[in-house]
């Protein structure tokens, strides 16, 4: 009798494991055509939108989800589910309590079923096997961005140098003007300072002696 009850319980549990669990996107996240950021993006899931979780990988937290009729993969760190009245991130420790299956990614089967009408399906041979070309493209993009940043930095340095030279010339011009102004005021003083003293005796009431 106990064996029959156990078998019935196992049968009742199987649909729960097979059905999709409900989750929520925690940010605007790309739903990709494979469990890696190297695969093409299918669509963007807005933050707070609900998704159906069909299963997740065992070795890393990437989950197979559905969103408005589309199918793809999202990293578990961007998906939460309700567990004991609280939202938790979809991680391996919560797979079984949430009723999430552990699945494997089969490239050909998955792409043939969901992406035949997509533009990137034409390049499936590249995406299926060696993805070094993806890394090479990213490296080229990174080099272009670095070159662009270097040029912007050099341009900014050149603008700063020109501004510094302009201010330096302005300061020189101001100092020159100030020196010219001072020389105009100092010259009469110098003349008075070194003018020979008039030692001629003056008669009483001579206006030439009044300044002495």
Overview of the structural elements:
There is one protein chain. It is elongated, with a radius of gyration of 42 Å. Strands 6-5-4-1-7-8 form a 6-stranded antiparallel β-sheet, covered by helices on one side. Residues 1-18 have low confidence and may be disordered. It is an alpha+beta fold. The longest helix is centred in the last third of the chain and has 63 residues, at 132-194. The chain contains 5 helices and 8 strands; from the N terminus they run αββββββββαααα. The protein has helices at 2-18, 92-98, 107-114, 124-128, 132-194, and strands at 21-25, 29-32, 41-45, 50-56, 62-67, 70-75, 79-83, 86-89. The protein folds into 2 domains: 2-125, SH3 type barrels (Roll), CATH 2.30.30; 130-186.
Quick overview of this protein structure:
With 212 residues, the chain is of the alpha+beta class. 47% of the residues lie in helices and 20% in strands.
Q: Kindly report the CATH topology of the largest domain.
A: SH3 type barrels
Residue ranges: pLDDT <50 for 5 or more in a row?
A: 1-18
Distance between the termini: 139 Å
Q: Beta-strand level of the residues, as a percent range? A: 15-25%
* Number of contiguous helices: 5
Q: Let me know the CATH homologous superfamily of the largest domain.
A: SH3 Domains
Which word captures the global form?
elongated
- Estimate the helix proportion, in percent: 40-55%
The succession of helices and strands, N to C, reads HEEEEEEEEHHHH
Entry keywords:
single chain, 212 residues, alpha+beta, SH3 type barrels, six-stranded antiparallel β-sheet, two-stranded antiparallel sheet, 8 strands
């Amino acid at each position: 009798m106990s064996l029959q009850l156990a078998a019935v319980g196992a049968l009742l549990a199987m649909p729960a494991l097979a059905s999709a669990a409900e989750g929520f996107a925690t940010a605007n996240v790309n739903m990709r055509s494979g469990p890696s950021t190297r695969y093409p993006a299918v669509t963007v899931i807005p933050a707070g939108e609900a998704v159906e979780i069909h299963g997740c990988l065992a070795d890393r937290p990437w989950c197979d989800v559905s969103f408005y009729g589309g199918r793809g993969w999202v990293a578990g760190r961007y998906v939460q589910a309700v567990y004991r009245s609280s939202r938790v991130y979809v991680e391996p420790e919560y797979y079984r309590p949430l009723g999430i299956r552990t699945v494997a990614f089969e490239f050909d089967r998955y792409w043939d079923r969901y992406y035949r009408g997509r533009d990137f399906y034409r390049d499936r041979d590249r995406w299926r096997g060696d993805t070094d070309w993806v890394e090479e493209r990213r490296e080229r993009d990174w080099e272009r961005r670095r070159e662009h940043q270097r040029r912007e930095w050099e341009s900014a340095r050149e603008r700063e140098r020109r501004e510094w030279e302009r201010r330096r010339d302005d300061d020189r011009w101001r100092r020159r003007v100030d020196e010219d102004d001072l020389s105009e005021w100092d010259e009469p003083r110098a003349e008075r300072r070194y003018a020979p003293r008039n030692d001629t005796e003056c008669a009483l009431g001579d206006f030439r002696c009044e300044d002495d």
